[in-house]
Structures are given as structure tokens and as C-alpha cells.
Design goal:
Blueprint lengths: L4 H17 L3 H8 L7 H4 L7 H9 L4 H6 L6 H65 L4 H12 L1
Helix pairs in contact: 6-7
Length: about 160
């Protein structure tokens, strides 16, 4: 396999890991049960590590995602921060759900009050019409205009 920029970067990260974990590359090869210069093909970028080597490296504590992509591993603090954010998000979602339920209930109560107001307005209108008909009838029987006006004033209060 020809060396590529990606292979060289992976090899460089492999070297960084091995040098942090072991005194020498030869010591790492012995720990892995491999012969001398076994790792040089990967460190130089001539080859990419296969699944068996990746598995062995993981057992030694190498973050395989970091090795292959260069992305730093997520720390426990970062995970805790994200989980805290998720907990806050869940709390806010719960509050939002409760607020929606409250608003829905308030809306239903408002609609009921509006209906009651409409019913009362209709009742008042019917009573006003009945009073007006009463005055018409009282006028027909000869009640004086001043007396009718006095009665109207009483009913307006």
C-alpha cells in the first residue's frame, strides 16, 4: 500500500501513543507479541493497522477513534457537561409541556366564559325586547308619556 497523507498521520499518532505508553517501539512490539520492526510499516504510513492490531492497541488503552481520525477522545467532564445539558433540556421540555397544558386549560376556561357572556348578552337582549314590548302595550292602554318615561328610567338603572 502506498504512503498517503492519511496513512502518515495515523502512523504519527500511533508513534505518539506507543512512545507515551512504552519506553521503546521494540518494547511495544514485545508486549504485542510481534517481531522486531513489525510496527514500522504502520508508523511510517506504508500500511494501515488492521482489525487485530487495532483490537490489541485498544486493549493497551489506545483510543481507536483518535488513532484513525485524530479527533480527541471525549472527556468525562465533557460527557457530564453534555448530560447536564440534556437534563436541563428535559427539565425545560417538561416545563414547556406543563405550560402548554396550562395554556390549553386557560383557553378552555376563556372559551367557556365567552360562551357565558354571549348567553348573558342574549338574555339581556331578550329582556330588553320584552320590556320594550311592555312599554308599547302600556302606551296602547293610554299611559301618559311622562309616566312611560319614568318607568323607562327605572328599568334603565
Amino acid at each position: 500500500m502506498p504512503e498517503t497523507h492519511e496513512n502518515v498521520e495515523i502512523g504519527s499518532r500511533l508513534r505518539d501513543f506507543l512512545e507515551r505508553k512504552f519506553t521503546t517501539i521494540a518494547q511495544a512490539e514485545r508486549k504485542l507479541g510481534k517481531g522486531r520492526n513489525y510496527l514500522s510499516q504502520y508508523i511510517t504510513g506504508r500500511s494501515l493497522p488492521g482489525a487485530p492490531l487495532l483490537k490489541d492497541l485498544a486493549k493497551l488503552g489506545c483510543d481507536i477513534t483518535w488513532l484513525l481520525t485524530g479527533e480527541e477522545p471525549v472527556t468525562t467532564a465533557e460527557i457530564s457537561e453534555k448530560l447536564g445539558g440534556l437534563a436541563k433540556q428535559r427539565e425545560l421540555e417538561k416545563e414547556l409541556t406543563e405550560l402548554k397544558a396550562f395554556c390549553f386549560d386557560l383557553s378552555r376556561k376563556y372559551e367557556a366564559q365567552q360562551k357565558r357572556i354571549e348567553d348573558l348578552e342574549q338574555t339581556i337582549k331578550q329582556k330588553d325586547e320584552a320590556i320594550e314590548m311592555l312599554f308599547v302595550e302600556l302606551g296602547k292602554v293610554g299611559l301618559a308619556t311622562s309616566q312611560l318615561q319614568a318607568l323607562r328610567n327605572i328599568f334603565k338603572r
